[in-house]
């Protein structure tokens, strides 16, 4: 299912507020006291997000971030991390960075020139109608034709995707962004954070992938709404997705639960299995009974490695299964596949829809992150065939390749 590798989205202990107009540390370790929240602040209403909150102080926004950062397929490597940001309108005075604001990072809003190093951030800005503010992206692998063409035409700088490398400094600086929205695929990239700030490029880490539920990821568009002056559009977007999800959950609940497993083959007899958190929530909300389900835990990744024998023992009787995505290793062992009821009954699906292979672009890793209603629709129709029609599937569809 959707996963942006988050092994080290960001080394918070290195996030010194050399960003913008701030020179103090903006990070509080878990052992530090809670950040103060005076009663006069008016919080925005967030129904799902657990890793950030925001409140209007009267002249500017105060945003708090807190998350446990789990390694890909593993557990959190350290204590929960915390940060505070002040989103100060361009025509307002920056408050004294003391008391409740001591060590806070300052970002001027609305941000007009944005750099991003992960495709879902492109999708969020597009949904808000401000993708023209992009000045730098990871590269040319965008599913969005317009953004990809702007990259190929040299209009947008290429700073490298966060799962491969830290941002390329020369390209980033030449784009002159007002803010970098940064995800990181490895802790070794963290040394670049301080360097970027020293070069006067503000950096905002994104904890979206630490959200324990898929709708929490959607609500991150509210943060981008505050940054870009499009909060009303962001609220409307979250409302639309929420209503669609609730409708689909109600449709699925009218049927008996269907047993299911979801795992993609990573080679060498190992599978990455959906066990908990946001990816497992998709299966639950589709009224699926995940035979690989384990307790949700925000300090653990949603995927976990299982050997082929373990997968057979735990998942052989699943009525439906997802056994492949666009990037998984092929698995063609007929003898093994025949041990799965889902394969014998013809209910094996793949996450391989909405792609543009010629551009190496896959919308499941971009737009689907903020359109979980479309993913949920696929799963509801997979598990409850009575609801299917000719437009049933977008991202997850019957896997015909296994039966060729």
List the helices and strands and how they pair.
Blueprint: E1 27-29, E2 42-43, E3 52-56, E4 61-67, E5 81-89, E6 105-109, E7 114-116, H1 119-127, E8 134-137, H2 145-152, E9 157-158, H3 169-175, E10 179-182, H4 191-198, E11 203-205, H5 214-218, H6 220-228, H7 231-253, E12 258-267, E13 270-274, H8 277-285, E14 288-290, E15 303-307, H9 308-315, E16 320-325, H10 334-337, H11 341-344, E17 348-351, E18 355-356, E19 361-362, H12 372-383, E20 396-398
Parallel strand pairs: 5-6, 7-8, 7-10, 8-9, 10-11, 12-14, 12-16, 16-17
Antiparallel strand pairs: 1-5, 2-3, 3-4, 4-5, 12-13, 13-15, 17-20, 18-19
Mass-distribution shape: globular
Helix content: 25-40%
Total helical elements: 12
Q: What's the count of strands?
A: 20
Overall pLDDT metric: 86
Our Rg estimate from Cα atoms comes to 22 Å
Strand content: 15-25%
Helix-strand makeup class: alpha/beta
């Amino acid at each position: 299912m959707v996963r942006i590798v988050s092994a080290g989205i960001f080394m918070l202990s290195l996030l010194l507020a050399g960003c913008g107009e701030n020179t103090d540390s903006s990070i509080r370790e878990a052992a530090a006291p809670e950040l103060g929240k005076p009663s006069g602040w008016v919080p925005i209403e967030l129904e799902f997000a657990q890793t950030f909150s925001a409140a209007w102080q009267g002249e500017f926004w105060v945003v708090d971030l807190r998350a446990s950062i789990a390694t890909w397929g593993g557990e959190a490597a350290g204590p929960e991390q915390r940060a505070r940001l002040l989103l100060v309108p361009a025509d307002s005075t920056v408050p004294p960075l003391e008391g409740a604001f001591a060590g806070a990072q300052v970002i001027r809003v609305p941000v007009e020139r944005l750099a991003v190093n992960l495709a879902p951030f492109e999708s969020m800005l597009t949904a808000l109608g401000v993708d023209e503010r992009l000045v730098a992206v990871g590269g040319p692998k965008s599913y969005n034709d317009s953004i990809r063409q702007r990259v190929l035409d040299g209009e947008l700088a290429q700073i490298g995707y966060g799962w491969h490398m830290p941002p390329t400094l020369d390209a980033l600086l030449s784009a002159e962004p007002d803010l970098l929205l940064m995800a990181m695929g490895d802790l070794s990239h963290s040394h670049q954070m301080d360097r970027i700030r020293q070069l006067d490029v503000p950096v905002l880490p994104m904890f979206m992938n630490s959200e324990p539920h898929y709708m929490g990821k959607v609500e991150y568009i509210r943060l981008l709404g505050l940054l870009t002056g499009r909060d009303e559009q962001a609220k409307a977007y979250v409302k639309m997705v929420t209503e669609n999800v609730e409708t689909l959950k109600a449709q699925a609940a009218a049927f008996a639960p269907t047993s299911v497993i979801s795992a993609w083959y990573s080679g060498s007899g190992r599978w990455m299995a959906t066990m908990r958190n946001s990816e497992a929530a998709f299966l639950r909300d589709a009224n699926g009974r995940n035979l690989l389900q384990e307790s949700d835990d925000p300090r653990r990744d949603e995927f976990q490695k299982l050997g082929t024998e373990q997968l057979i023992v735990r998942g052989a009787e699943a009525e439906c299964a997802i056994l492949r995505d666009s990037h998984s290793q092929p698995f063609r062992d007929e003898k093994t596949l025949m041990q799965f009821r889902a394969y014998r009954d013809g209910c094996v699906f793949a996450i391989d829809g909405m792609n543009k292979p010629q551009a190496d672009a896959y919308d499941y890793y971009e737009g689907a992150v903020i359109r979980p209603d479309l993913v949920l629709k696929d799963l509801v129709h997979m598990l409850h065939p009575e609801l299917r029609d000719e437009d049933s599937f977008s991202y997850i569809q019957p896997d015909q390749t296994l039966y060729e």
